[in-house]
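User: Some background: our group keeps a shared notebook of sequences we're curious about, and every so often someone picks one and asks for a predicted structure to add to the entry. Today it's my turn. The entry only has the sequence so far, pasted here. Could you supply the structure so I can complete it?
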Amino acid sequence: MSKLNQLDYLVIHCTDTPAGKAYYADDIIRWHTTPVHLRGRGWSRPGYNDMIYLNGALVNLIPFNTDDFVDLWEVANGAEGINGRSRHIVYVGGKDPLKGTPLDTRTDAQKETMEIYVKYLLKRHPQIQILGHNQSPRAKGKACPCFDVPEWLRQIGIPKKNIFPVTLHP
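Assistant: Of course. Here's the predicted structure to add to the notebook entry:
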């Protein structure tokens, strides 16, 4: 397999929706795959492999295998420039419901599921680098996932070598 298909990154996202408002896999799939002229993104597939609901439930959006490579059928459209080398997870929320501004709205259940997910993926792929969407190559000015991913990773005991240290901007 080509080095371009090596699984190098786990990118963490938020749905950019108001705190406490439930959204589901069907919503994300519709938002991402509806044609642009109908107010969607017009993508061929969702931007995330997995999604964490408000109650902490983990839902798969794009199937993937557990090897160290990203096959074409596993690619999500979450972070332009690194999608072919990434897995993407999103939590529901990320927006202050009153002000409409970015906010870490993760519930305790979401935080717990996200921690388990990150640690499991790291066990399966010890070389992976973990970053927030806002650290990715073409995410200039984005707040997503609305919390400091490197700081959170340090808090949950992720090794420094797996915490993406800087923005990937070219």
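Suggested note for the entry: Residues 108-124 form the longest helix (17 residues). Strands lie at 9-14, 17-18, 50-52, 58-60, 86-91, 94-95, 129-132.
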